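This protein record is not my work; I was only asked to verify it. The record follows directly below this note.
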Amino acid sequence: MIRSNCQGQPQRTRRTLRKFSGHPSVLHSSFVYFVSFVVRCFVFAAVVPLAAADTSDAAYQKSLAKWKAGRIVSLKRDWLPLAGLAWLKPGENTLGSDSSSRVLLPQSAPAHAGVFLLEGDQITVRVRDGVRVTSGGKPVRELKLVADDPGPETVLELGSLRIHVIKRYQRYGIRIKDLESPEIKKFSGLTYFAVGPGYRITGTFEPAPGKKVVIPDVTGDVNEVEVPGVVRFRLHGREFTLTPLPSDNGRLFFILEDQTKDRETYPAGRYLYADPPVDGKVVLDFNRAYNPPCAFTAYATCPLPPKENRLPVRIEAGEKYAH
C-alpha cells in the first residue's frame, strides 16, 4: 500500500518529492491499510448525504464546517506530533538521541536507549538498563513487536514519545510520535478556497475490470494497484476522468493533481473521497479535497497521484497549502 498512521511534521516535504525510484509490485495490503486509515482519520465528521445536498444549503454548510473541524483535530492528534521515521536494516539498529543512532530520538530522550533487532519479519526491542520504556503501561526490557500491518501495532512509551513499527512493502521502519511536539503549538490552522457550487459535480462511473495504475510514493516506492474503474465528469466545459483507488469501506479514494499546485495547493497533489456509485453516478465534491499527511510532516509515507489523475485544469476548491 501506502500507509501512514494517523500521525506527522512540516515544511520538509519538497525534498521527498524527488524520490521516484523503485519498481512496480503487486497490490500490497499496506495500500488498503493506508486508505482505510485515512478514512478513519478524516471521515469521522458526520456527512449530509451528498446526493441530496446543495453547497448553499444550511445542512451542507454545517456538514462541511464539521468536516473541516475534524481535519484540525486529526492533524493535531495524529500527524503534527510525528518526530521521526527510520528504516530498519537486518540485525541490530541502535535507538537513542545520540547522533550515531540508527533510530534517532529527540534530544529529550536518553542518548542510548536500546536496540531494535530485525530478523526476517520479526522485530524485537531490547531496552538498555536504566532506561524506562513501557508498553500498555507495563515495563519493557525485551519484547517482540507487531507492526502496523497486520496490526494492531505494539506501541512503546518513553516519556512523551510513542514508538511503533510500520511496514511498507517489504521494509520495516520505526515511527516516533512526540505528544509534546512543538509543531502542535506552531500550527496556525488551515485555509480553503471559497465554497463553490461548480465544484460539486456528478460524474459517471465506468467499471474497468482488471485495470491497473502505477502509484509512486514519497519514499521512492512504486506500487501497481488494481482499480475498480474510472469516473468521467465535466468541469469548465471540458470532460475529464479520475481513477479511484480501492478502499476497504467501499468509498472511492482519489489522489489527484491540478493546475493550482504551483501556487495555491500542495505540489504533490491532494486527496478526495467520494461515496460509492449510485445508479452509475458519483458525486465529486472538490470542496472536500484536502492535503495529504506529507504536506505537514516529513515522516509520512504518502502515495502520490498516478499519471491518470494529473488534471490539466485549475480546481479552485478545497484545502490550500501554506508554502
